[in-house]
Amino acid sequence: MSTSFLTAAANISNTNWLAVLLVIASILCVPIFLFGLFKLQTKYRAEMQDDEYYSAHLKMKFSYDTEQKEEIIEPITETNNSNNDDLAINSATASDQTIITINSSIKNLKEISEKLAKESIYISDKFDSKFDDDHYHLSFGDGVNIETLRKVISVCKENGLSSLSFSKNTAAISKIYIGSMGYKRADRLILRADNTTLNDLLANKSLNLKMLKSVIVTHGEKNRTL
Description:
Blueprint: H1 2-11, H2 16-42, H3 51-58, E1 60-63, E2 68-71, E3 77-79, E4 88-90, E5 99-103, H4 109-118, E6 125-127, E7 136-140, H5 146-157, E8 161-166, E9 175-178, E10 189-192, H6 196-202, H7 209-219, E11 221-222
Parallel strand pairs: 5-6, 5-9, 7-8
Antiparallel strand pairs: 1-2, 3-4, 7-9, 8-10, 10-11
């Protein structure tokens, strides 16, 4: 392209300004091309990969709960015919598929893990999002097993849990985040762990995910601090 511009400029005899523009254009072509190539190799690197790798890339989504990218898990659902709303519920009600991930920055991480293990609940994964506080936040997504969530909240309440929230992020499906960074979200409703309604709800044997989410909406506040 630069050669074409220079050739055209050399053949122009009666319009000097046009020849100058063509010379300038030929010079600018090289850095513009290199910049475009650089952007392709950085910002759009995933899109340039083979189908297999690009498919894996599409399954990853940024999570505000861990402040990093996570794989999106598609929950297996079944229809609850006894519910008038005909809601789809996660099959974890029959077989717990809930993934529990914990922030490695939590100071009493070992104690929490041991107490959960006594309830036959085990940490699936860890994430590393730094915070320096004795208290921490818990968040959960759709599709989690309510009994597992109840036990996790109860254990954490005795070990520094300050608040909890519901995460609408698709990366949070079927996941519970202990030490979540979701409290930083300005648009997320945060329920304090010492809320009396929450305590009553945890003792309710009929507790379900819809009830817990409703309490968070009703009593939660937008609060960006632990």
